[in-house]
């Protein structure tokens, strides 16, 4: 007992000496910072709160600052002080609710947490830093002092990315879960690191012609099976694949290969893990206290209190951080619908109406508008993308017109309707023809991304290929048709990894994709179809320039229910950018099928999903079809074409350019929009 007391006395003496090293005469926080923080308009709190290595009087140290307004005491604990809770006690910064202090001699790499003693019921807890730039690899949960210096080499991309991210640019997105895209089976089936992923992913995406990749959340998360959607590190990339600089290298590498990077970002909810944001200072600081507003019933997670100004500043700073420090080209915001509706996932009596008696979450609406305004003010050359599954009006319309201010919105309705349609036996498709055509009623009400996303190939839903109807040959034909139909429609494109070559097994986060399937012709043919679709898409402005403008799309005939055929026109801004497209959703070849077209001359067959090189039967139109002066579908000419079974065919007009240009010139005297 005496020996233990002596050792404890020595430890306390050492701790007191360490405590004397704590400096409280240094602060990164100005009065303006505190004002903006408390007014919900601070966009770069990550430069002030958290852990920052600084030099004071030529001496290196680490400055700590954390928001815990209901704490009685806050200290920094870590491997540098033996995790002693009395060694480095922080001081309150005026009445801001922020605790701060400087530990001299402490540099990058130190592992730490905050020990918080609450004013309420004697609650004590060790918390990870909400503003940490780096974290221990799960299941460990501590934060790491880290310097984010990195020498970027993507200046050429950053200079031109405004054009690459524009609404009238070709945008085809390859959605990726970094932990399961490829794995090293001979090393325990481990995931690739950020740096290991860089060359292979860049080469693959570039070969297939995608313009962007979208990463499922890379922010630190304790449960790997959440795919990152249960985030705890709103400023820290997951350390499962390396350091922050390793992720920067991956993004930098993709940029140098002309590939944009979109990051999933989750301001809709967060997990209830003790080391995270939940019940942070012994009170419901980041989340609502009332579970009818603060607990998400579907995901057993917590909902941010969007009405609290400091929480808004936290989230705004997180969004700007990934754009500032990681050069992200866009943020895809997860689960926006769950933010917008107070009754989302709740039964009657389990939610609280807003002050007007409605179910709209007015605080969340205000935050989303503020978020979009902040992003586009700070980085006007990026895009924000909403995953929003309802008919909320104006999601991708400017805030000054009453919209939420997003640049783009996922078209969830198209995805669900079309996948359901493609799963049906073709015999019954004529009874569900509206699933193909209904989209065009609302297609220009928002700026849409057409997703075939990760959510549709998990939890027993089956892979894209497995969803298709018919035998194996028909499944591949249906999938080629589905992808071709998506590229023919107005809207940006997104395909989740594995769908591009027809993975049979539904996606599992613990396994890599079934790359071995590419040795088989149907799978390699499907991938070649996607590669050619992307190339064709990027080369034809008619397929992307007017994605958000009704002038770029016309039905030729959307009413051939009996034969389950649809035909359409896509137009670019130039008179020469014109495509006619026909889709046959039955396994019966449509010989001698007539469609009306607006121009004479040769209509060259430029893409055909039934071509032998893609795994099809090789039926087609022998290179092209001559338009005849036989009016049809309210157009002066018509084509008589062959539409192969379960196939899509693209035709490009190469007709009488002289006559067409003369007609165009003759019509130029008509009043235009500037007249």
Overview of this protein structure:
The protein has 675 residues and is of the alpha/beta class. The chain has 3 domains: 14-144, Sandwich (Immunoglobulin-like); 170-382 and 399-410, Alpha-Beta Barrel (TIM Barrel), CATH 3.20.20; 550-669, Immunoglobulin-like, CATH 2.60.40. The protein is 27% helix and 23% strand. It is built from 17 helices and 31 strands. The strands form 8 sheets. The protein has an 8-stranded parallel β-barrel, surrounded by 4 helices. A 6-stranded antiparallel beta sheet has the order 24-25-26-31-28-29. It is elongated and about 90 Å long. Mean pLDDT is 93; it is low at 1-20 and 657-675.
What characteristics describe this protein?
single chain; 675 residues; alpha/beta; Immunoglobulin-like; TIM Barrel; eight-stranded parallel beta barrel; six-stranded antiparallel sheet; 17 helices; disordered C terminus
The CATH architecture of the largest domain comes to Alpha-Beta Barrel
Strands across the major sheet, in which order? 10-13-16-19-20-21-22-23
The CATH superfamily label of the largest domain reads: Glycosidases
Low-confidence stretches: 1-20, 657-675
Helix/strand class: alpha/beta
Mean pLDDT across the residues is 93
